[in-house]
Write a structure and sequence with these properties.
single chain, 199 residues, mainly beta, Jelly Rolls, six-stranded antiparallel sheet, five-stranded antiparallel sheet, 3 helices, 10% helix, globular, disordered C terminus
Amino acid sequence: MRVEETAVPGAYVITPEQIRDDRGNFYESLRADELERVLGYPFVPRQINYSVSRRGTLRGIHSVSTPPGQAKYVTCVRGALRDIVVDLRVGSPAFGRHAVVELDAESGRCVYVPEGVGHGFLALADDTCISYVVSSAYVPGTQVHIQPLDPELALPWGFSEPPVMSAKDAGAPTLAEARTAGILTPWHLDGRVPAGVGA
């Protein structure tokens, strides 16, 4: 697999090498040893989530406060989507910067999202299914939501008609409001957030 860092430090795009024959294809979606070699620390899955969306659905920008923090390994297992990660780590040299990649079931391309970085996507096809392999189990009250249409972020969603959004996402705070509220994760020079360190 090919692993490439994005414009957001610590966030990576992983492209698997596919073996094709007359039966179809085979590829490794996640190799923990290879990911750990690149990251310099282990990624231990604690929960796997799926969401299914109709075309034009916008979900995000989502993160999890620290503690507990949550890294994500994101894959499109059906359909296609425009995936965006945003650096929400206060003090990061890339704070507010984003990276965009299109994920689809055919390519098997994945995105690794480190703790403190926000994630969202726009479904480009009906019945698009996304898989999240995450490093911590769900803890009520720790979710961080940032307004995906925040003019300060100016994220290139590329929709041609108003997206379908949840009330929670539509009413989420802007990046500036979230920073003022103290709900964002702090940046650390090694790119990781030590366990037990809050915003």
